[in-house]
Design a protein that fits this description.
By secondary structure, the protein is α+β, with helices and mostly antiparallel strands. It is built from ten helices and ten strands. The two termini are 27 Å apart. Bound molecules: zinc ion (ZN). Zinc ion binds next to helix 10.
Length: 286
């Protein structure tokens, strides 16, 4: 499931190819993914609009558009959900079976494909308003982080998934950051010492930056096949090179030796999601 780094990499690839492109036609094949916007409202708003830029907020893609008449700014919000993909496809290429929304921008179509339809492409900006600070921005401070943790009894791993604490961290990078900070995933958020919280704050930023760097070096295939899969499915897709997985030190490595101490990595279920950790480096044996 894509998290902040994967979305950031996608944004960096989409921005230059969509910027200044005009939307000529809008096709919605799955109304669910544009909710609560209606097909009619989306079509009306987007037809003739021009992409001014693509950016990111948390795990959301933010498409800044400018409508034709009257000329005004418009924000389209995208979320990849579990299986969503966004890419450009030549008009001549057949559309994939699960293409949910298709925006024609001339000789290419901008396709939002989603096999499970948990993703979103909507004009409703509500979701981004509830997000906490961007972890790589100056708004995410050690002091603010410590203060927010002090108010929570939740295990730290579960608390890290709370998008109002910090935006963009999901299951993978929560486990990775805790491993790098040497903190047990089960430790209640309010029980972290100031030194632990500061270590975790640094680990979050480091792990996200490294993932963005790693992803940015890979050429994305806009047809939505090949290497691109590696970014979103972490080596699960056939033919994907192994190095995507290697950069993850604990995630999905249950039973395999810890890179630091050789102890077997453990898997634990917290709030119905898997957590991976090293019982020796991090402690927290349940
Ligand atoms: Zn270890």
């Amino acid at each position: 499931m894509p998290e902040l780094p994967e979305v950031e990499v996608l944004v960096r690839h989409l921005d230059p190819v969509l910027r200044n492109k005009t939307i000529h036609a809008v096709r919605v094949r799955r109304a669910k993914v544009i909710a609560p916007t209606s097909v009619r409202a989306l079509t009306r708003a987007l037809r003739g609009a021009k992409f001014a830029g693509v950016s990111r907020r948390g795990k959301y893609l933010v498409f800044d558009l400018r409508t034709a008449r009257p000329a005004r700014p418009l924000m389209l919000l995208g979320h990849l959900g579990m299986t969503g993909r966004m890419y450009l496809l030549p008009v001549k290429s057949p559309l994939p079976k699960h293409a949910a929304v298709i925006l024609n921008v001339g000789r290419t179509n901008f396709v939002f494909e989603d096999t499970r339809y948990f993703g979103r492409l909507t004009l409703d900006p509500g979701a981004v308003g509830r997000l906490g600070p961007e972890p790589l921005s100056a708004q995410f401070t050690v002091r603010g982080f410590v203060r927010a943790l002090d108010r929570s009894r939740q295990p730290i791993k579960v608390k890290l998934l709370d998008q109002s604490l910090v935006a963009g961290i999901g299951n993978i990078y929560a486990s990775e950051a805790l491993f790098r900070a040497g903190i047990a995933p089960t430790l209640p958020a309010r029980e972290l010492t100031p030194a632990q919280a500061a270590r975790l704050w640094r680990a979050i930023r480091r792990v996200l930056r490294e993932a963005i760097e790693c992803g940015s070096t890979v050429p994305l295939n806009y047809a939505g096949a090949g290497l691109r899969d590696g970014l979103f499915y972490f080596g699960r897709a056939p033919g994907t090179p192994d190095f995507y997985e290697e950069r993850l030190r604990v995630y999905d490595r249950a039973g395999r030796p810890c890179y630091k101490c050789g102890t077997a990595i453990k898997r634990l279920v917290q709030a119905a999601r898997s957590t991976f950790y090293c019982p020796r480096c991090q402690g927290g044996e349940p």
